[in-house]
Every structure is written in structure tokens, then in C-alpha cells.
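Page 42, continued from yesterday. The earlier attempt failed because a stray header line got pasted into the input along with the sequence. Redoing it now with the clean sequence only.
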Amino acid sequence: MRVLGLSMDASIDFRANPGGKNAGLLAALDRRFGVVGTVWPELGRVGRAVHQLAAIHPDRDLWRRRYNLSPRLFDARSARADALIKRAPPHDLIVQVHTLCGPGRDPGSRRFVLHTDCTYALTERHHPEGAPLRGRDRARFVAQETAVYRAAEWLFPRSEWLRRSFIDDYGCDPARVVRVGGGVNLGVPTLDGKRWDQRTAVFVGYEFERKGGPELLAAFAIARRRVPSARLIIVGPTGPAAPGVTWVGRADRAGVARAYAGASVFVMPSRFEPWGHVFLEAMASGLACVGLRACAMPEIVTHGETGLLAAPGDVAELAEHLVALLGDPDRAEQMGRAAWSATRAGHTWDDVVATMAAAAGWPA
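This time it went through. C-alpha cells are written below.
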């Protein structure tokens, strides 16, 4: 079976960008079937500028969201995808990643499957500030989403949380919506030499507020009163000085790997986390994870085995979990080793592709 990859993520070219977010999925598809090419339907500079001006807003974050979720941009990207797919090498199936466009002007005209982690309905319900569309624009964008979801041969959500949205919010046939999970993009092949006695927690994420950063800082301040030697490393943003807190700022993949290596626990109490690939990265690096009982996080972190989960907004419980792991290196090691082992079977991109193939009946 000849596969063509489609995504708005520039790293869809997995051979040129082997470290990209979607590279692992395409590489696994290539190993099993053969990927004949990839399509990245980004518009040119002029096209982007036109749509950016149409979405302009004084709040830069809102401007970015309005631009990316514009139904007019969705149509333009779909038209661009249509042209590129027509020029692509012969293929039997398109594997699309995420839904910022369709696989051409008419989704029903092509054979494709979709792998993704979120829908507009979930964002609107759980993170309304990330869902800026109103009125006609909202109705049109949801209709575009729905057309793609219903035209796909198979929908392969990463989480059961998302699977229910496809069925309940978009009326998709449950028989062709199969949870497949996600694969690990970063980890270590062995835990030889790994230490868990540093009493150091690490956070990785750029959208600090959405990822629960303020709650984390409050919980860490409480935890540090009971574990005075505790440290918190924050990778991604920068912020004000606080006892025991080090702000690393932006980091490349090697920098993130070093942060995992120097920590004993990973923590990210995200307010809205459709999937959370960083949890898998941390687990694959031998770290117990602290997150929330919300969104897809309980599908990745098993409470009491590979980490600890707190109730959303409960800073006291989050602090207790930090104390439980930072104050007990043996427990952090036990859970960290269990987390690492969990990612070795069932959480690889080859596992994801195998689940897809079994559900769809694709030939070996």
C-alpha cells in the first residue's frame, strides 16, 4: 500500500525533519507500507498575508488563533492541498494529520484517514479562549470539520476522550472511530546511570497559563516548604525569580532531553491538554509524571503506577503529589522505571500504525 502524508505541520517531511512532531508516525507508516511522499499545503507569503490581515486583532494571541481557525483559510489550504495531491506520486491512501484543511476541495473525492488529537468542539467546551470563532465563521468552520470527519474512511483519534467527541459532537459512525494513541518522540534506550535523588521537577511547555503554570508555581512553593532542597526547572517560557525555580526559556530537542535527564519528576498540571506528548517523552526518559485528572492525561499517566494525578484547580493536592515524589527518591525511581517500561510496549509509533492497520484491515 502506497501512503501519502498530509499535514499543515512543516515537519510532515519526516525524512528531512526526523525529529518533527509527526515524523514518527510517517516513519512507522513508511516501515510498514511505504510513504511515497508528503504534502504540506502552506500558502505563499502573499496568501498568508491576505488571511492574516483579514483576521487582524490587537491581541496577538487572539489574532493568531483567529488566523489559524479561519474558515476562509481552511478553504484556501484545502485548495492548495488539492493541487499538490494531484501532482503527488501515485498513492493508494492519504494519511492526514490534524484538521486545519481538507484533503482537497471535496473531502469525499479521495480515500483518506485522519489521525488527530482535538476538535473545535472540545476546545470550545474546555478551553473557550482557544476557540475564537463566532456566528457564521464558527458554523462554517464546524461544517468544514464535519465534512472531513464524515468523509474519512477511518478516524484515528489519539484518545478515547477525543473519540467520544467525534461521535457525540459530530455524529460520526462509532464503528469507524478507533482510538490509536500516540508514539514517543523523545526518550532514552536504557535507564543505566539514571538518578532520581536530585529532588528536581521539570516542566516543559510554551503556553504557560494553559499548561497550568500559575498553579504549578503555587503548588511548588507549598511543596518546597516541606522539601527545602526541591528544585523546579521550567523549559519554554521565562518568568520572575522564585526560590528553587529556574527558568530555562526556549530549548531545542537536545536541551529538552538534558532537562529530562537532570530531573527526577515531570510535572505539567495542564488546564487543557488534548493529548500531551511531553508526558510520553518524560516517561520514556524514566520520569514519573504529575498531571491532572482531566482531558486525555489519565489515558497516558496511570495514577499510582507511572505517576500521580490531581483534581483540576486543586493546588493543595498538586503540592502533595510533588512532596510525595520529590521527598521520596525511591518512590520516584519506582514510578519512573514503571513509566519507562510502559512506553516500550503500546506507546511506540509502530504500535500506533499496527492498531490502525488492524482496525482498517490494511494488508501487511
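Notes: Residues 200-344 form a domain with the Rossmann fold fold (CATH 3.40.50.2000).
Reminder to self: strip header lines before submitting.
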